[in-house]
Amino acid sequence: MKKLYVAALFLCFYGFSDAQITITRSDMPSIRDTARYSTTNNNIDITTTGANVTWNFSNLVINGQGIDSFRSILSVNPLYVLSFNILDYAIRNDAFPAIAQLQISNQYSFYKKSNSYLEIEGFGAEFNGIPLPAAYDVPDKVYQFPLTYGRKDTTPYELTISIPSLGSLHMVGRRFNNVDGWGTVITPYDTFQCLRLRSYQQETDSFTIDALGTTIGVPNNKIAYQWLANGQKIPVVEVTGNDQFGFYTVTKRRFRDGFRLPPPPFTVQADFRANHTTCTTRDTISLINRSTPFVAGTAYRYTITPNTFNYVLGTNDTYASPKVNFTAPGLYTVSLHIVSPTGGTPASGDTTKVDYITVTWPTAVSDLNKDMVLEIYPNPVSDVLTVRTAEPITELTLINTLGQRVMTRTNESRSVSFSVRSFEEGTYLLEVVTASGRQLQKIVIQ
Predict the structure, then answer these.
(1) Bridge partners of residue 375, in order along the sequence
(2) pLDDT digits (tens, 9 = 90+) for 383-413
(3) Measuring CA to CA, which residue among 124, 22, 130 is closest to residue 80?
(4) Among 108, 168, 224, 368, which one is most buried in terms of CB atoms within 10 A?
(5) pTM of the entire structure?
(6) Which of 228, 256, 284 is the last residue of a domain?
(7) What are phi and psi of 311, to 5 degrees?
(8) Could you tell me if 51 and 81 lie in one domain?
């Protein structure tokens, strides 16, 4: 009998722990409440949803913190009471992003809550120090209670704000709420049983200029994904963004949190080296990553110019240490861009090595003759270039950065002079071949 009781108690607890929750008026904030949150640049999965889902966001890295303070109308501006009567609380907002261009500040939304809904009934701001209270023509029902899995609501809203000596701002829209998921959400702060709400606002913002008698309207569609838990006052996770022409751009990611010290500044140093900086088109070159610090999850992107090369041995431009085969001679510039996920805001670094790798066609000479007595002057050169060696030159080749042979001369003497005035300014590669070997030299024509 005791075993049956324990089993029944376990089943009851298990069923309770996985039960769907309900969000009601009691889960909403009140005057003088505060709720701390952290912001993040990490991606938050907004596509996974449904019944009994576990959303694991425990690896979110903060890049800032803030506090939502829920104030009374009187504490914002006593004059607003004449327009809104006594509502439940006020909170700062950014209802009209374009307002800042009109020197309108201190924007607040004023909320009313009941057993059936939480709605925005008023808006307040200041224009050059003049208060601009405005009651909604049609209140915006943010939530309709009780919020339960599967509930869908569609409600309109409308607001007009008069701006002295200028005109008016008009916001009209429709809110589509869909509680499309329930389950468990895990954050760096805590683990919560939650509902997932998708709230889509199809909105048009218009500005009427009285002096011109014209009205300019622009779409301002927004989507918010919220994970709501009992007793937390604000969403425990929230992703908001703009939806323009079907493209969703995230503008803010945040989660319910406690006080945290800000992360220390974080910098990265992008760096690499090639195992050989002089090679032929037969060689495979390794670009070896030397960026610091080495952090798992760092993203790499190599850029090589000119574009006469291939990544080989299964590597590509996103590998930390790719392998490259060049298909044409020339002087190759290599750049590396890295993004590290460590330290709150992702830190990035860049480095570029100009004319870093010298590539030639394969020849019968196996190696460069670095001991060849060679004089090349002047360098940089703008008129006549002179090349002198200790033995006759069998071939003299000038190669541009695209790997093109722009000049080839053969059967020369120990001293050769030629004009460079017909060549474009830039960096070139001069290949000098004698009976005992060859040598490469960078030449700058200016």
Answers:
(1) 388
(2) 888 888 888 888 888 888 777 788 888 877 8
(3) 124
(4) 108
(5) 0.59
(6) 256
(7) -80, 135
(8) yes
